[in-house]
Structures are given as structure tokens and as C-alpha cells.
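Submission checklist for the structure archive. All mandatory fields must be present; incomplete records are returned to the submitter.

[x] Identifier: ABC transporter ATP-binding protein
[x] Organism: Xenophilus arseniciresistens
[x] Residue count: 236
[x] Sequence attached
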Amino acid sequence: MSELLAFEAVTAGYGNAVVLDRLGFSIRAGESLAILGRNGVGKTTTLETLMGNTRVSGGSIRWRGQDITRAAAHQRARAGLGWVPQEREVFPSLTVEENLGVVARPGAWNLARVYTLFPRLRERRGNYGNQLSGGEQQMLAIGRALMTNPQLLLLDEPMEGLAPIIVEELADAIRRLCEQEGLASIVVEQHPVLALEMTHQAIVLERGTVVHAGPSAALAADSARLDALLGVGMPA
Ligand SMILES: Nc1ncnc2c1ncn2[C@@H]1O[C@H](COP(=O)(O)OP(=O)(O)OP(=O)(O)O)[C@@H](O)[C@H]1O
């Protein structure tokens, strides 16, 4: 598998505040990565930095062999980064189908495939964005990112605030995207259990730097390590 994305010693933040401190990790094509860590360690800032929304003061970001460290935010979105923001940002006065349609770009993903992945969205296709439940909005936010036909899907706390039954449905869909569709993804999560189940590789951040990197399954199976890193052991 070839390298898709690499952060090399990236130092970045907001204004004079440094949040990421020589952060390094890489993702290969078709691979999914969980970014874990306690509150405020820089998980969201990592995605914001990838999207070009922070001030980078050191290191470099390589995307499909190209240095994009200084590329403008709009160029990155067009280059195949499918961003699902934490706030979901569904258009409230457009229907589900319109929300999906306005961002569509040519490629393998289209309305029919998004509806197959999320049958609830097909049922709600004529509803407006502001008539959807939180879970449906999250499905729509993911569906919209897929309609742009990305090469890397960026999910920022996709399960936040959702009912357990919806969390299961979403986790299944995300797992299918990674395992069956071979879509590379980054999943930022505060809750490690689901994130590790959904991904191939995991990194744990502390104060903007990587303190653990390895296969998700190995970390999920090592409750002592998980507890030491995150203060949450897996149930026996
Ligand atoms: N727009 C911003 N301007 C200034 N500082 C910010 C901004 N966004 C985040 N920060 C600061 O950057 C640090 C890292 O925040 P970040 O959101 O990346 O953490 P996180 O690991 O995603 O945490 P959480 O799980 O709480 O979202 C925090 O100290 C936060 O206050």
C-alpha cells in the first residue's frame, strides 16, 4: 500500500498558541486511523491543520506525494479530503437530497450508494436538514462528504451526543466504509472503544504529540496500556 498522508514533525496552533508539537504520523491508501487522547490534547487541531485552518510554524504535511503544508484550505478540500466537521453543518433549509446534491463531484459515490449505506437517509430524502435527529444529521454529514468522492474521510467525534442504537448503526456504516469500500479515514474520538473497533491503526496524543502508535486491535486488547494512556480500561 502506498503512502496517502504524512505529518512530519508538524508544529501548529492558533496565533501564538502552539497546540501540535512536532506531530508525526502517516496513513497508507485504504487505511483507517484513530486519533485518541484526552480533552484538549490537539485531536481536532490535527484535522484543522490538515484542512489548512491553523498556523503551521514547523514541519511538513505530505498528501499523495505533494507537500501541502502551505496549500490554501480550498485547494485541500478539492484534493480529496472529505471533512465531516464536529458541528455537522448540515444545511437546515435544504432537503436531505438537496444537501447531498449540492456538494456532489463525479466518482464512485452517488445518491444511490449513499442511500444504500444509510437507508434512513433514503426514507428522509424529502425532509429538511432542520427536521432531522442528531443521528440522521450525522449520517447526512458523512453522506455529504462521500458525495464529494474523497480519498480520505475525516471524522471528528462522529458519535458525540448520539443515542447508543444510532451509535451502533453509524459504527457499522463507518466500519463498512473502511473494510469493504477500502476508503481511508481518520476518526477522532474521545471514547476509544468504538474508535479502535472501527480502525486499523491508532495514535494517542498527549500535549500535541504522539505518545503511542500501533495497530488498533493490539491497543484494544491491552487494557493496561489503554488505561495508562487514556485512563479508561476496556471491559474484561
Ligand atoms: N480556534 C482556536 N483558537 C485558539 N485555541 C484553540 C482553538 N481551538 C482549539 N484551541 C485550543 O487548542 C487546544 C487543543 O484543542 P483541540 O480541540 O485540538 O483538542 P481535542 O484533543 O480535540 O480536545 P476535545 O476532545 O476537547 O475536542 C486546546 O487548548 C484548545 O483550547
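[x] Structure attached
Curator remark: The longest strand covers residues 3-14. The CA atoms of residues 61 and 67 lie 6 Å apart.
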